[in-house]
Amino acid sequence: MSATKAFGLAGIIGWPVAHSRSPVVHNHWLAEHGLPGSYVLLPVLPERLPAALAGLVALGFRGCNVTTPHKQAVMPLIEHVDPMAVRIGAVNTIVVQDDGSLRGFNNDGNGFVQGLRDVKPDWRPDDGPIVVVGAGGAARAIVVALAAQGAREIRLVNRTHEKAQKLAADLGPPIAAVRWEERGEALRGVATLINATTQGSAGKPPLDLPLDALSRDAIVGDAIYVPPETPLLAAARARGNLTANGLGMLLNQARPAFEAWFGVMPSITPALRRAVEATF
Predict the structure, then answer these.
(1) Is the pLDDT of residue 254 over 70?
(2) Quick one: pLDDT at residue 2?
(3) What is the DSSP string of the chain?
(4) With left for phi above 0 and alpha for psi between -120 and 50, is residue 37 left, alpha or beta?
(5) Integer angstrom CA distances of residue 238 from 49, 217, 220, 247
(6) Which of 5, 71, 163, 166 is catalytic?
(7) Is residue 204 among the annotated active site residues?
C-alpha cells in the first residue's frame, strides 16, 4: 500500500512538549490533502528516550520531530544522520526507513533561511555581512545553513563571548565572533540581522541591541514567533526595515518532514498561518 493511502502516524518527541504547534501544522496538511493519518504529541522523559525511539518502529510510526531536550541526545541512537545535522550537532526530524532503521535530519536552519526568502524573495545570504545574535542551538542551525547557502561574512554576537568564540572555532569561516560590547557597531554595513536568542519571547526581556548603525535596507529576522512581533522586530519595522519572525522557520522546516512521512510536499497557505496564529 502506498505511503499516501495507508494510515500514517507521526509526532513530536520532547519534554515538555504540550506547547508545540507542530500538531496544528501537520494535522492541517493531512486534512488539506485528504491523507489518512495523525500527528501527535509524544512526551518522553530523557531516561526513556532509547525506548521511545525503538517504539516508533514497533508502533508503525513514519517518524517524528524532535524538540528540547532531545535534539542532541537522539544522535547516537540513530543509525543514519544527515551531514548537515552532524554539522549542526542536533536532529529535529527522524524518518523511519523501510528496513526499520532511523534516519535523522535537521531542517531548522534551512527553514529559517526560507522564512527570510518568503518575506524578501530576492534575498541572498551573500547580499552582504550578516549579524547573528546568540550562540545556542538555534544560532548554530541558522549559521550552518547560512554558510552552506553562500554567506561570505557572519558576525556572531553573544553576551558570553566565549560561547561565540567556541561556535566560530567549531564551524570556521565565514563565522567570526564579535564581543557583546561591540554589538551596536557590528551592525554597520550588514544586509541581514538575526536574533537567535530567547530575548524578546513571551515572558523574557527584550533583546538589548541598539539599531542606530543598521541600514534601513537590511532585513531583520527573529527565531521567535510568540509573540509574533518581538520588541526587536517592532523597532526594526518602525524604522523601515523588512522583518520576518520565527513562524517561517516553524512552517518551512515542517514541509520536508511532512513529505518524507506522508509522500506529499505541502504548501504554506494563509489558512495554515491563521490556524497556527490562532493558538498564540
Answers:
(1) yes
(2) 45
(3) --TTTS-EEEEEEESS-TT--HHHHHHHHHHHTT--EEEEEEE--GGGHHHHHHHHHHTTEEEEEE-TTSTTTTGGG-SEE-HHHHHHT---EEEE-TTS-EEEE--HHHHHHHHHHHHSTT--TTSS-EEEE--SHHHHHHHHHHHHTT-S-EEEE-SSHHHHHHHHHHH-TTEEEE-GGGTTGGGTT-SEEEE-SSTTSTTSPPP----TTS-TTSEEEES--SSSS-HHHHHHHHTT-EEE-THHHHHHHHHHHHHHHHS------HHHHHHHHTT-
(4) left
(5) 45, 13, 12, 20
(6) 71
(7) no
pTM assigned to the model: 0.95
Cell of 6: 495507508
